[in-house]
Amino acid sequence: MYDPTVARLTYRALLGRRRALILGALPLLLIVISVAVRALSGADDQTAADVLGGFALATMVPIIGVIAGTGAIGPEIDDGSVVYLLAKPLKRPAIIFTKLIVAIAVTMVFSAVPTMIAGLILNGNGQQIAVAYTVAALVASIAYSALFLLLGTVSRHAVVFGLVYALVWEALFGSLVPGARTLSVQQWALAVAHKVAGGDLVTSEVGLTTAVVLLVAVTVLATWYAGQKLRSLKLAGEE
Amino acid sequence: MTTLSLDHVSRWFGNVVAVNDITMTIGPGVTGLLGPNGAGKSTLINMMGGFLAPSTGTVTLDGRPVWRNEEIYRHIGIVPEREAMYDFLTGREFVVANAELHGLGDEAARKALATVEMEYAQDRKIATYSKGMRQRVKMASALVHEPSLLLLDEPFNGMDPRQRMQLMGLLRKMGDEGRTVLFSSHILEEVEQLARHIEVVVAGRHAASGDYRKIRRLMTDRPHRYLVRSSDDRALAAALIADPSTSGIEVDHAEGALRVQAVDFGRFTTLLPKVARDHGIRLLTVSPSDESLESVFSYLVAA
Ligand SMILES: Nc1ncnc2c1ncn2[C@@H]1O[C@H](COP(=O)(O)OP(=O)(O)OP(=O)(O)O)[C@@H](O)[C@H]1O
Ligand SMILES: [Mg+2]
After folding, report:
1. Taking the model in full, what pTM does it have?
2. Which of A54, A106, A222, A233 is least crowded, fewest Cβ atoms below 10 Å from its Cβ?
3. What is the ipTM, given to two decimal places?
4. Most A CBs within 10 Å, among B71, B82, B148, to test the A interface
5. Ligand 1 within 6 A of CB of A237
6. Residue A21's Cα: distance from chain center in Å?
């Protein structure tokens, strides 16, 4: 399934200079905030949970997911260069699977690693908060990558839709409207994080079983559907 | 033997009919797909390459369907019209990646780059390439697996005369090797220099098919119209109409000129200056009034 050449091309495209800068900006901001918070108010478990939950998991992880997930295929489809992948005896689902792995790896590196570092800075992993949110970021990276890779495959405006979803749904509705919280990658990831941390500093709106089932279902379905979409992707002329 | 068959293929986008009920067979050798801008050449090539489903009809390569059949790409090489490729790679990295995707190695890539004479720039980023260089690297990527069918959409666009000659030589050689090569162009001279067989498409329809002599004849053995201004239109008209190569003359008062219809193109072009000289008439303007390719093609469709 995994094609190393497709992976290499995808990594090179994702980690090109401009995109790498965008990918690096939010993690850098998280670290700067963490250093500032720690310096101003000292180590505090509640504060650490607020920063990691409110900024890292609710905002940074989905945005990194959008950039990596849609960026793994969207630009190629937009400019037509995907034709060089499609004109090969490669199974379409294998192309999607490989791009998913790359998107997950990139999202994990640019979101889970800085989350861990920020957690250590904030309260030195007191009450397992750093580890819990890092696990949440890892779990969320998988589902976000799959969702946004699908979005990049089906829509020319994937980045916009993705950002709207990430910011409006996950960050805003997710914390305001109760019903929306059940259908939120963030809450599913929090359910897993809660299991890791125990206590009541890290909590979720959904139970662990529901969360795991939904995470797996969304990831598998989105990936399968993206593979089908790529199979019948129509390349039209310039206009 | 590789034969590409289109059977009653149509393709529409919304209510624009881009390709209208085309049936054709493309066999070994070089075939030119000729048509003006917007004729449907790219749409046809995309369907031939399996990148676009026909709205109706079928495209098959030696009997196997092309659409949704990725195994077919073992036999097809494609040079797309669009410029976009992986600009952040060097030419060599790009061609090597294409070879790997076919399950081949560096050696295949090296050979393909040599074939298009791009070794000298293979370690530069594609982003820095000229149009002609891009075109040749695209060509190399299409050749790595030595396909039996090669589809090229406007391959000569942006090439200088030397590069054009070189690519023509290469395509001719591939045709002589028994491969099926199809390229599109909107320039008749380009097509007839290279293609043994020509398919003409106009406004989505299959307008003509045959060797270049037949196409040329269809295009030239027809009434040509000229707009002529002279020092004495009346005398000139009287003298011209006496010759069988002229089939009609009108005086266009608004333009202050003659509209001449000539049936024998070759004869008329020598007749006109001769008649003028013999009668002491000075020619002020001689301009073909319908020489644009579109009018040539619309004539073909009507025929
Ligand atoms: N994706 C699309 N959506 C809508 N219309 C399209 C699409 N692709 C092509 N068309 C229309 O179909 C017709 C044929 O276009 P096509 O690109 O195949 O022509 P062409 O012969 O390749 O022209 P050119 O010489 O300019 O490349 C045109 O009228 C074009 O506007
Ligand atoms: Mg075209």
Report:
1. 0.84
2. A54
3. 0.90
4. B82
5. yes
6. 17
**Token representation of residue B51:** 């990148």
For residue A220, count CB atoms less than 10 angstroms from its CB and return exposed for 0-12, middle for 13-18, buried for 19 or more.
Answer: exposed
Residue-wise pLDDT tens digits, B129-169: 988 889 999 999 999 999 999 999 999 987 888 888 888 99
Instruction: Return the HEC string of A55-117.
Output: HHHHHHHHHHHHHHHHHCCHHHHHHCCCHHHHCCCCCHHHHHHHHHHHHHHHHHHHHHHHHHH
Testing the interface with B: which of A18, A81, A84, A232 to mutate, by most B Cβ within 10 A?
A: A84
Residue numbers in B near A74 (CB within 8 A): none
Give the residue numbers in B contacting A (CB under 8 Å), as ranges.
13, 42-43, 46, 49, 51-53, 68, 70-74, 76-78, 80-82, 84-86, 88-89, 97-98, 100-103, 141-142
B130 phi, psi to nearest 5 deg? -80, 170
- Of A216, A188, A211, A23, the closest CA to residue A105 belongs to A23
Per-residue pLDDT tens digits for A2-26: 999 999 999 999 998 788 888 999 9
Residues counted in chain B: 303
Mark A156-167 as b/e (b = at least 16 C-beta within 10 Å). Answer: eebbebbbebbb
B210 lines ligand 1 (CB under 6 A): no
Q: What pLDDT is attached to residue B292?
A: 52
